[in-house]
Amino acid sequence: MIKPHFSRLAGALTLGLAAIGCSLTMPVLAQNDVMTPIAIPAQPSAIELGTGPLPGATAKESWHSQYGSVFARNVTVATLTPFFPATGKASGAAVIVAPGGGFRTLSMNNEGWDVAKALADKGVAAFVLKYRLKQTPADMADFEKSMAEMFSGAARANRPLAQQDPAVEFAPQIADARAAFALIRKRAKEWQIDADRIGMVGFSAGAMLTISTTLYGKDAKPAFIGDIYGPLTKVEVPADAPPLFIGLAADDPFFANAGYGLIDSWREAKRPVEFHLFEQGGHGFGMYPKTTTSTGWFDSFVRWLDMHGYLKPKK
């Protein structure tokens, strides 16, 4: 029997994805920007995670540009791309960065590489997780049409709640996250990382993956986690749950009006949680420069990491 919190979380994720599709990572300020197909960028530092090709996949990985950023879709093989601090600057801590995109695309610049570079500049090794995605039409026009259908009122009204728990529904993505943690721990000495100081931060769908990995990822066990504009659905929190940082805009059209159950869950479990509710920022602000205070989420996150001792070498 599925536990109640499983179905609540899966239901929230399903409704959120049905309503927003790939807009999970799109800034409100540029709604008319078009999707332009691009060649797959060279990724010489990317390391395959060994979780195998996505079962049943027929469409091949492809990329497009939009909103001054680049997006990957139809990812069938998971990779991890490292960004290391400058020599002598490393704190020994590390973060796995999970971009968002409705499990249909990945915002590789705004919620991946740019975040990782900024973390490395603060002395924290960062690893961008390009996790496997749900398949979408290979043709760009058909892809855009499928996204438009997801936006339609009929699609939102007729899409049923997920009946599976996230551990099943997002099994490939959780497996990719677990493999990322395992790889970093295996090479921790080589990369000058403390194996017990590896955290994870995710954006929108990536935030969903971060929470799911924490709750159902078995041996993943992140030391700390960041949830940036993900759903705040109430969950059952394990006794050893890691410190949690949450950033959300009050005008987020998808997740700002469904309560703050995730925060309540962490507090009820007497686990550390920090919550920043920005007055404005919409959804998908990530590392985009905006005039709203949501742009300050990264500085707040870094101060939070410092408060927990992750910006300095372990004594």
From TrEMBL:
<keyword id="KW-0378">Hydrolase</keyword>
<dbReference type="InterPro" id="IPR050300">
    <property type="entry name" value="GDXG_lipolytic_enzyme"/>
</dbReference>
<dbReference type="InterPro" id="IPR029058">
    <property type="entry name" value="AB_hydrolase_fold"/>
</dbReference>
<protein>
    <submittedName>
        <fullName>Endo-1,4-beta-xylanase</fullName>
    </submittedName>
</protein>
<dbReference type="Pfam" id="PF20434">
    <property type="entry name" value="BD-FAE"/>
</dbReference>
<feature type="signal peptide">
    <location>
        <begin position="1"/>
        <end position="30"/>
    </location>
</feature>
<keyword id="KW-0732">Signal</keyword>
<feature type="domain" description="BD-FAE-like">
    <location>
        <begin position="168"/>
        <end position="216"/>
    </location>
</feature>
<dbReference type="InterPro" id="IPR049492">
    <property type="entry name" value="BD-FAE-like_dom"/>
</dbReference>
